[in-house]
């Protein structure tokens, strides 16, 4: 029963933090430490991959109409209901935008895979990343909202190829454990002239292929740890992560104008302080 409770806790943490600009890796390191798990526990490493896949599935289902439209299959999803946030979109976004947004980080992650894995549970770079990423988000939002950067893309369909590529380059910052993929891309979008909403939508949509590729690749090395006695642990974490991630994304998109990046940055600073006090002292 204790393992199931831990699986639920980890699933909640993953679902809550994966797509918000608060660093899921920082939260998972902290939570694993508090629960008594270590970086050399391969079952936990595999479990984190599985609950990430659950979060990916949640966001893929929420954005299913947009994904279908990218492949010219939008009519196929109409019978599934309209929960997409793009009911009247002009459908200008295409697969080239997505490729330009994900290729830089995927290539860099491939060549730095061993370095990234080695730093994945290293607490010091995560602590610094929480703070530096928070400052980056505050600066990006201030420049955008103050008018120093002109917003030229109000919706995701207004994003240009150049903007998609620039966001993709800035997404490489997220390879620093603790920096946050969504934080780097949402703030990055605002720095290159997209609205907060357009940047968030593009960030979430890009997350699907880049996270699926990363977790799928890791799962090939770790699937053997998913076995009979561990199945309830993995199933519980998967289901909880899926449900929580779904709710978080829907609520975030609904209330996006009320929650500023600065609010998330302040939370990151508080998390860093908590992280230092309980983990690194």
TrEMBL record:
Subcellular location: Cell membrane
GO cellular component: plasma membrane
Transmembrane segments: 43-63, 93-113, 125-143, 202-220, 232-253, 259-279
GO term, biological process aspect, one: regulation of cell shape
Molecular function as annotated in GO: undecaprenyl-diphosphatase activity
Catalytic activity: di-trans,octa-cis-undecaprenyl diphosphate + H2O = di-trans,octa-cis-undecaprenyl phosphate + phosphate + H(+)
Residues making up the signal peptide according to the UniProt record: none
Pfam families found in the cross-reference section: BacA
Keyword vocabulary terms for this entry: Antibiotic resistance, Cell membrane, Cell shape, Cell wall biogenesis/degradation, Hydrolase, Membrane, Peptidoglycan synthesis, Transmembrane, Transmembrane helix
InterPro entries, per database record: UppP (IPR003824)
Xref: PANTHER family: UNDECAPRENYL-DIPHOSPHATASE
Similarity comment text for this entry: Belongs to the UppP family.
Protein name per Swiss-Prot or TrEMBL: Undecaprenyl-diphosphatase
Organism: Paenibacillus nasutitermitis
């Amino acid at each position: 029963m204790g393992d199931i409770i831990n699986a639920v806790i980890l699933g909640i943490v993953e679902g809550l933090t994966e797509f918000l600009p608060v660093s899921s890796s920082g939260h998972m390191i902290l939570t694993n430490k508090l629960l008594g798990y270590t970086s050399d526990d391969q079952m936990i490493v595999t479990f984190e991959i599985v609950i990430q896949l659950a979060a990916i599935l949640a966001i893929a289902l929420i954005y299913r109409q947009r994904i279908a439209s990218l492949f010219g299959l939008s009519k196929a999803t109409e019978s599934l209901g309209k929960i997409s946030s793009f009911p009247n979109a002009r459908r200008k976004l295409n697969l080239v935008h997505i490729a330009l947004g994900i290729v830089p980080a995927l290539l860099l992650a491939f060549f730095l895979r061993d370095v990234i894995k080695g730093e994945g549970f290293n607490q010091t770079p995560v602590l610094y990343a929480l703070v530096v990423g928070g400052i980056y988000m505050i600066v990006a939002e201030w420049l955008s909202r103050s008018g120093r950067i002109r917003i030229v893309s109000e919706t995701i369909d207004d994003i240009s190829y150049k903007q998609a590529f620039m966001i993709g380059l800035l997404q490489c910052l997220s390879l620093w454990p603790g920096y946050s993929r969504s934080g780097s891309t949402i703030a990055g979008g605002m720095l290159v002239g997209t609205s907060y909403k357009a940047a968030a939508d593009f960030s979430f949509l890009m997350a699907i292929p880049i996270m699926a590729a990363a977790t799928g690749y890791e799962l090939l090395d770790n699937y053997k740890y998913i076995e009979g006695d561990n199945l309830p642990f993995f199933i519980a974490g998967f289901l909880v992560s899926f449900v929580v991630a779904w709710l978080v994304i829907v609520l975030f998109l609904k209330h996006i104008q009320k929650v500023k990046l600065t609010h998330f940055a302040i939370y990151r600073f508080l998390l860093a302080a908590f992280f230092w006090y309980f983990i690194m002292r």
